[in-house]
Amino acid sequence: MMAGLAKLRNRQYHRPPLSKLVRDDLFELRHVGKLNTRVLYFFTRGQRIIAVHGMRNKATEIPKRDLTVAFGKKKGLVIEESIMKQKTNFDFYLEKQLKDRDFAKRFKKAGEAWDVAIKLASLRKASGLSQKELAKRVGTSQQQISRLESPSYEGHSLSMLRRVAEVLGAAVHVEIQPKKSQRLPIVADGGVPYRAKKRKTL
Predict the structure, then answer these.
(1) In contact, 110 and 7? CB cutoff 8 Å
(2) What is the pLDDT of residue 193?
(3) What 3 state SS string does 99-161 have?
(4) Which SS3 state, helix, strand or coil, does residue 47 take?
(5) May I ask the CATH architecture of the domain 113-167?
(6) Which candidate in 28, 68, 98, 135 could, as Cys together with 142 as Cys, close a disulfide (CB 3.0–4.6 Å)?
(7) 31 CB-near residues (< 8 Å, 6+ apart)
(8) At 29, phi and psi to the nearest 5?
(9) Crossing angle for the helix pair 101-126 and 89-97, nearest 10 degrees?
(10) Structural contact between residues 120 and 17, judged by C-beta atoms closer than 8 angstroms
(11) Strands ordered across the beta sheet of 26-31
């Protein structure tokens, strides 16, 4: 979910499937998966993102009680202009967490999963296909397409991604790069003393 919140810093992610308008300038960020986590937020002047409420709910519609809580917090929250230029608690928390190598790896991996899910869902909707229609053309199940469009899914296979991309008129590009901080191992023989051969005199 933190990876999804971080993605909202970029305008290209201010749309479905990552984000959608609920009503009255209140937006929803939804992480579809085992936990089905949802965060309600809004924008202020200067495009500051303020998260006001979070929940775990699998239903299509947001429960009224959660909307009431979110709108109540939104209405009562007054933000001064000077605060807009300051870092938020989320910024400080994320910076602190990213100092942990294990968290940084998980965060990067989660961000990549969000990108794959968003790209596939965007291409499908641009093609005017439902998940069920796309599944039929690919030769798989609607549940499999739903999993591919979920940012929590990590079972992507290259063959399946290529099949889906072909139906959507796209291509899959895979790039493998060495880690910047990791040098390739160098194999060297142990030191061998050099001795000049003596010529025999006749």
Answers:
(1) no
(2) 54
(3) CCHHHHHHHHHHHHHHHHHHHHHHHHHHCCCCHHHHHHHHCCCHHHHHHHCCCCCCCCCHHHH
(4) coil
(5) Orthogonal Bundle (1.10)
(6) 135
(7) 1, 4, 37, 38, 151, 152
(8) -110, 120
(9) 120
(10) no
(11) 19-23, 26-31, 37-43, 49-56
User: What is the DSSP secondary-structure string of 54-93?
Assistant: EEE--SSSPPHHHHHHHHHHHHH----HHHHTSPPHHHHH
Is residue 50 within 8 A of residue 5, CB to CB? The reply is no
d(CA 98, CA 166): 36
d(CA 75, CA 193): 81
pLDDT means per 10 residues, the chain with 202 residues, are 70 72 84 71 74 77 87 72 58 78 79 82 90 94 88 83 93 80 51 53 54
Q: Cα(201)–Cα(63) distance, rounded to whole angstroms? A: 102
Q: Which two tokens stand for residue 101?
A: 């190598």
User: Does pTM surpass 0.70?
Assistant: no
Q: State the DSSP string of 8-42.
A: TTSGGGSSTTTEEEEETTEEEEEE-SSS-EEEEEE
The amino acid occupying position 57 is: N
Dist CA 187 CA 202 (whole Å):
43
Which residue ranges does the chain devote to CATH 1.10.260.40?
A: 113-167
